Known about the structure:
Elements: E1 2-6, E2 9-16, E3 22-30, E4 37-40, E5 52-53, H1 57-63, E6 68-71, E7 75-76, E8 79-80, E9 86-87, E10 93-96, E11 100-102, E12 105-108, E13 116-120, E14 125-128, E15 137-142, E16 145-149, E17 152-153, E18 175-180, E19 186-192, H2 205-214, E20 219-223, E21 231-235, E22 238-241, E23 246-247, E24 250-251, E25 260-264
Antiparallel strand pairs: 1-2, 2-3, 3-19, 4-25, 5-10, 6-21, 6-25, 7-10, 8-9, 11-12, 13-14, 13-15, 16-17, 16-20, 18-19, 18-20, 21-22, 23-24
Amino acid sequence: MEQVLFRGIVYKRHALSTPRPAMLHIVTIDLKTSGIKPLVTPGAPKPSDRETSARKTSDFLKEFKLQLAINASYFHHFHEKSPWDYYPHSGDPSYPIGEAISNGNRYSAPEANRPVLCFSAQNRVQILKTEKCPEGTAHGVAGDQILVDGGQAIAQVPAQGANDNNSADDKPYPRVAAAVNREGTKLWLIAVDGKQPLYSEGITIAELRKIVTDLGVYAALNLDGGGSTTLVMSTNQGSRVLNAPIHTRIPMRERPVGNHLGFYASPQE
């Protein structure tokens, strides 16, 4: 199934049956399209006891009147013990891991082994191993490992991080990745549902690496997954969650997360 959601934004769902059930959600964004503009969750005003306030992805979409949004960086602190005992709740202090930039303001510092996804003021995107976006970057977030670099699959040991995405890379898991073309004019967002037997059990990092490589991308970065995995779009009736998030083991329950990546876009003509 493939559909144009907005001008320059195409969405495709793809169900895998082997080696286990898995549902892929792939969004392709043409950054040259008029009206498309990224937004990373802004940092909290200074002085503050936090870098951001945790939000559900759909609340981020509605608050900033975006057309599309996905969860982004790993963050701390985090725990998930029961449907009512978890952290953060919406509005709680949160701290994205690695560099985070919104509207040119860096509110979370670069960290070792945290490669970055960076958008220039001219709407060009790149994925860098250097852990720090170039001067003049408008928006940026960090992941935990490069999956593809220079068009070649890269196997590497991920950094020690936060959240439940620390599960071994060789276990099926909900996953999120971002990928770019060589020119920096096209962005792919990949969300894979997991933890839901018979519907979608998730994929391994190696399987995610193959998926993005098969898309023909120039570079790809693994972002926060697990129960954070949430892809949302706006509709005339409000926000619509495109994937099947799972938080506190409850399907379709969204997790409040540290930050997000969203896009403004024009209606499809």
